[in-house]
Amino acid sequence: GENVEQHPSTLSVQEGDSAVIKCTYSDSASNYFPWYKQELGKRPQLIIDIRSNVGEKKDQRIAVTLNKTAKHFSLHITETQPEDSAVYFCAAISISSASKIIFGSGTRLSIRP
Amino acid sequence: NAGVMQNPRHLVRRRGQEARLRCSPMKGHSHVYWYRQLPEEGLKFMVYLQKENIIDESGMPKERFSAEFPKEGPSILRIQQVVRGDSAAYFCASSLYQGNEQFFGPGTRLTVL
Predict the structure, then answer these.
(1) Alpha helices, DSSP H only, in chain B?
(2) What are the chain B neighbours of A49 within 8 Å (beta carbons)?
(3) Which of B34, B43, B111 to mutate to probe the A interface, most A CBs <10 Å?
(4) Does a cis peptide bond (omega within 30 degrees of 0) precede residue A44?
(5) pLDDT attached to residue A98
(6) For residue range B12-39, what is the model confidence (pLDDT) as tens digits?
(7) Which of A31, A30, A19, A32 has its CA nearest to residue A108?
(8) How far apart are CA B104 and CA B25, in angstroms?
(9) pLDDT tens column, A50-97
(10) DSSP A8-38
């Protein structure tokens, strides 16, 4: 079945440094890859997404890359700030599976002051 | 434009009771998804519904769980004879079209005593 693997499970970086989270997916029909940020007790919030016809997308300090051949995609956060501390989930959606989101297991990102 | 609404936000039930969780999608959205999040874990897909139809229920337990999205009114996730293992946060999401961005509600946190 569909599966999304995410690592690392926890990540601690110094404020101002970059953070990278990596994911792989199994369903080759996946064509949409959103990233969600979830703060404690809150709902998941979409922070950036990428579709399978694009290799890279950037929005200010956040960028996402996609390698369809290798079924890898990554989130890059530059110049990290304390408010970036949260749990981040990668996800994959396949139109062939009724568009349900298959989530990774999450990365708990902590920014050290 | 109100976002996705869920109620109640917190629900406490004793073992064997029934839990009813409600989700009102964003205005104009006819696609609703339910996800479950166990403590310290990622979100798992449960069911995908369009108005009056269940499209994909592959993530929903076969027994005790049911979902509906009537022509009028909110989507309902119903859990009969709850057990302690049902304690979790239940999120619904809605989208305008299949394969589009899904917007999440604030979640219902179910606690089974």
Answers:
(1) none
(2) 101
(3) B43
(4) no
(5) 59
(6) 999 999 999 999 999 989 999 999 999 8
(7) A19
(8) 9
(9) 988 889 999 999 999 999 999 999 999 999 999 999 999 999 987 766
(10) -SEEEEETTS-EEEEEEE--TTEEEEEEEEE
What are the structure tokens assigned to A39, written together? 């703060």
Contacts of B44 in chain A (CB under 8 A): 103
Cα–Cα distances (Å) from A52 to A25, A86, A104, B55, B58, in that order, read: 12, 26, 18, 24, 25
In this structure, what are the phi and psi dihedrals at residue B101, rounded to the nearest 5 degrees? -55, 135
CA dihedral B26, B32, B33, B36 (to 10 degrees): 60
As a whole number of angstroms, the distance between CA B65 and CA A86 comes to 31
- Are the beta carbons of B102 and A45 closer than 8 angstroms? no
β-pairing, B53-56 with B75-79? Answer: unpaired
